[in-house]
Hints:
By secondary structure, this protein is α/β, with parallel strands linked by helices. It has a single domain, classed as NAD(P)-binding Rossmann-like Domain (Rossmann fold). The protein is 38% helix and 18% strand. The strands form 3 sheets. It has an 8-stranded parallel beta sheet with strand order 3-2-1-4-5-6-10-13, with helices on both faces. A 3-stranded mixed beta sheet has the order 7-9-11. β1, α1 and β2 form a beta-alpha-beta unit. The chain is globular and about 55 Å long.
Amino acid sequence: MVFDxxxxxxxxxxxxxxxxxxxxxxxxxxxxxxxxxxQPVRAVVRDAGKGQAWADRGCEVKRAMxxxxxxxxxxxxGAEGVFVxxxxxxxxxxxxxxxxxxxxxxxxxxxxxxxxxxxxxxTIGAQASEPNLLTQHTIIEQALAGLxxxxxxxxxxxxMENSSWDVAPASKEGVxxxxxxxxxxxxxxxxxxxxxxxxxxxxQETWSGRRVVELKGQRVTPNEIAAAFARLLGHPVQAExxxxxxxxxxxxxxxxxxxxxxxxMLDGFNEGWIDFEHGNAESKKGSxxxxxxxKALIEQNRIKGA
Length: 306
């Protein structure tokens, strides 16, 4: 699709949406959804080189590191809405000081820039009191509390695209190792395409105060993931539980220095204390199926291996 450069010039349209993480799956969908609706987009990138493709499509580009409050302020200033996506940290230091620092930086930048509204990509289980990997989002949600502009905390389920790690073993060995267990326990999952679509919709809504929006897709068991792989690959695929007692040594062998938060996150899904909050939270439903996601992941793996 070709976009008219003048249509997307934020100076000719008072609305403009600043999108963090635009080079990734979710941020890219947010931006593409807005562009398809003829809404001006400002790409907020860490690497200037990754902004060129968006500049070629008529987007304004701002370079800002997540640690740089002044650059983020400039990136957010004048925006009708800001989509905030924090880079994932799978091996945080004890006590999550990185998330504490990011929360303070984001709050300072948003207070200074004062955009019309904010959508923060959080996670299912952000309300859990037990420390785990997702506590990083809990900390940032708390840091953003009480901002003067409307804010929506978008809490999606487990990403279906996490099954990208399963494509190779499913294809080559007919097995997917599962940290989610028992293997017949359903886990709420959603596709990044749905997350991006819902986030783009929220950015264009008006509300006051703080909203919590839970995004559900399908509840899927590891056995059902294996069965879907089997249908798509044309050979038997089984899920096999990775023994809980092996996790710490395994994660450390992969280079993690502090595997406890990741282990506790997995425990939370398996034991049920990481789930949706319900209560006063709004609920939205994704439409992309697991099979659609797995089919795309298998094709991507095939292209990489070609």
